[in-house]
User: What shape does this take?
Amino acid sequence: MKKALSLILSALMIASILAAMVIPAGAQTTALITTGSGNWTYGWSNTDENLPEGWYAKDFDISAWYHNGKAPFRNSATRVALNGVVRAAILKNIEVADPSAITALSMDICYGENPVVYINGAEVWSAQGASEGFVTVDLSEKKDVLVQGWNRVSVYVDNPNGKFYFDMSLTATVADAPANLIVKGDAWAYGWTWMDEQFPAEIFSATFDPAGWPAGQAPFVEYNTVETVLAGVKKAAYFQEIEIADPDAIDYLTMHIFYDENPVLYINGVEAWSATGYTTTAYETVDLSQKKDLLVEGTNRISVYVENQMGGYCFDMSLLASSKAAPADPVIVPTGASCEGFTGFGDANAPTNVLDGDNNTVCGSGWAEGTTQAVTVTLDKAYDVSAVEVSCKNEGLPADILNGGSWGSYDIYAIEGETETKIGSMDAYAIGDVLVLDEAVKADAIKIVITSWRGVAWACVADVAVYGVEAEEETPVDPDVPVDPDVPVDPDVPVDPEPPVDAGDATALIAVLAVVALLGAATVTKKALVK
Assistant: This one.
């Protein structure tokens, strides 16, 4: 069988894609500013005059600075050309959802000359002269200048020697963010047979070496002119290696898989999941959290078997790890959804499709910064919501998801009646993320607002899932029974009843004893509950 396989497999490329993604589980990078980004506000001087006093402060009014452009800025005919500039001030506002979650802050900057970088009015870095290219600067010690909400990044650049140019990125490492171990459309080493022969069992072990096997980009299909085509394949095996820094930090492991047919998933040589038949038009979501202990620190081998018994072969998958535990409460079935601020296909598609779970048909359009683009999911009644899951549109993702893939940043609001309360934010990298609340929040609707978007897909909300339990009815307060707030009642101290009236018999005494007995029982019950 090994000899037959060696004749079948053609070494199109060395399977160097193993260990393609090295992302520590439980942490993820978030681009606060990307190189070549737009919406920089800028002002400049063509003389030695100074810039306005305090121009770099967070509250400096830039409304009169009507110039707005896209980096890079330079003495050039392309992009923003500031020929003859002597000094320039370049500013951008950014949103930070939770600065306390940022564990590291890094800047890549290309400059000429003498740059000074401020965040919220505080100088965080400066340099002399001009750079030959992008320079990486660790700003982790300055991350505390960031605040929740909007932040002002201000940059000074001058031009004493005719070398004016500027561009930069700002990247935060965020704790407890999901890690995309494998993304849809990723590269895999693979082998196949056109016969009914079985693959040797060792092929799916943790130590099998697929050197010399071809490599290709998923999805793998039987008939297509774009993706990796395996026409006439009978059985196929796929391999990828991923690096995990801390497997103990993983609580939530999710796979999205598209297959035809009868797939079997192995993690480090151990079967972790299998299915019969094939998917139709959607990626199937599989909770692998109970199999997370198969992952080890360092290199992990992911192997997948797929066969083709009925024709119509295909395979693709993703694997998402999170340090947040999977929601324990059952998913709430929303009654509908509505879109806000989308154009194009966002209104053409039924908003309820963001509830169908296929991460395909969405509410969305081109990203419009400054315009509220949101989806509101309505519930049939009030629930105590414990978690919200939001997915992006997975479209055309390269293996390097952080530099070219699709992801969105979202603010999540709980709505109860007419009241909207922000309950958190998330970065849904390609597949999505789960916002797990420390304490359940009562809501009859959930609103997801896109705050930024990056990647090759439309700015959108692809799927939403809400977790929680039905909220208990609140006991109404009887307005006819006044409560004296100044007199605290100690439930463990019985209140003496009014002195009985001697009617000449034991009736009053019996009544008093009955009251005392009831109070004693109430005291015992209270203490039992306290224990």
About this structure: DSSP finds four helices and 33 strands in the chain. Residues 1-26, 396-405, 497-531 have pLDDT under 50 and may be disordered. The first strand starts at residue 27 and ends at 33. The first helix runs from residue 2 to 8.
